[in-house]
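Possible regression after last week's pipeline update?

I re-ran a chain I had predicted before the update to compare outputs. Posting the input and the new output here so someone can diff against the archived version. Not blocking, just want to make sure nothing changed silently.
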Amino acid sequence: MEYKRLGDIASYINGYAFKPEQRGTEGLPIIRIQDLTGNAYDLGFYDGDYPEKIEINNGDVLISWSASLGVYIWNRGKALLNQHIFKVAFDKVNVNKDYFVFAVKHKLDEMVSKTHGATMKHIIKKDFDNTKIPFPSLEMQEETASILKMVSDIIDTRQQEIKKLDELIRGSICRDVWRSRYRMAVSYNCRDMF
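New output (post-update):
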């Protein structure tokens, strides 16, 4: 099996270091790591000129390389990339984008072991570029990505089903406890009790 360095597969464009005063309520969304991980509650916007290279669109592959390492496929429309996130430009070799995402996700633990910094851990560009992933033929990449996508979809579906069952069980237990203890029907949602 051939392996390739990430630096030999694509170019990685870092986002822009927007200043707090540049964040507003109008314009294009500024995408930070929190917006990728689902921990954001205060999306900022920018309404001004910007370098074209930091614009992201649906289907772009993004890699957070500081604080929280992760690989994402952007699917929320036109936006601007903040610092500490790479946009992947597939400009060096022919590679299946979905395979690339799965392969890089597989290497995240290795990358975490190479992080530096006391307060804000990050992987330096040299270590990132030198990380190697398996690089089979394009046909094998497509086949592997297809299988992994199918498995990933099944896992996502099962996780959603487990979450719904957990909510159902918690609600049932709550209603049963209230009915048996206070001999009354419960007409509100008890999820917050657990």
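Follow-up from reviewer: compared with the archived run. The mean pLDDT is 86. Marking as no regression found.
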